[in-house]
Amino acid sequence: MQSIPGEDLAIDRKARMRIPVQEPNARPVEDRLRDFDATFVPLTEEEAREAASRCIHCPDPAPCATACPVNNDIPSAMWLIEQGDFIGAAEIYRRTSSMPEICGLVCPHEALCEGSCVRSKREEPVQTGALEAFATSYQRQHAGWRSKSARRPARRSPSSAPGLAAWAAPRC
Fold it and tell me: Between 3.30.1360.10, 3.50.50.60, 2.40.30.20, 1.10.1060.10, what CATH number should domain 6-148 receive?
């Protein structure tokens, strides 16, 4: 169920279909050979808004959200990114995913949400993965968001019967 129903939005779907796709900017190979940084340059705020504006907001259930293994409300997040509410979009992703920063980078979007996007019939799907990574990264940088699971776990007392671990431990 979409937070922002696509059928209620006053948008021109035909005009959105004419918005060209932005190819992701890859860093030069020489630079990538020297480090382990990301291959692609992260989106800017303006690029993210333009990429999200390509979403035609299919009626519920949207094919992209249905194809998503964690059922992200992708159309609502796209609408918020388009409006410039990047933190709100990140919160939508966090409702269904505990690690949207990672999912935005490593999930096979081409086969899942982007593969089921109506625009993919013309080989121009909305860049949902890059936009998910952008929104959650933006939230972390600007709102100081920190994962609840990022806290250190409580110390545990050693077991009285360590089993085989006692044999493997070095003796001083």
Answer: 1.10.1060.10
**18/6 Cα distance (integer angstroms):** 18
Could you list the pLDDT tens digit for every one of the 172 residues in the chain? Answer: 567 665 567 788 888 888 888 888 899 999 999 999 888 888 999 999 999 999 999 888 899 999 999 999 999 999 999 999 999 999 999 998 888 888 888 899 889 999 999 998 888 899 999 999 999 999 999 887 666 655 555 555 555 555 555 555 554 4
- Yes or no: say if 77 and 92 are a contact pair by the CB < 8 Å rule: yes
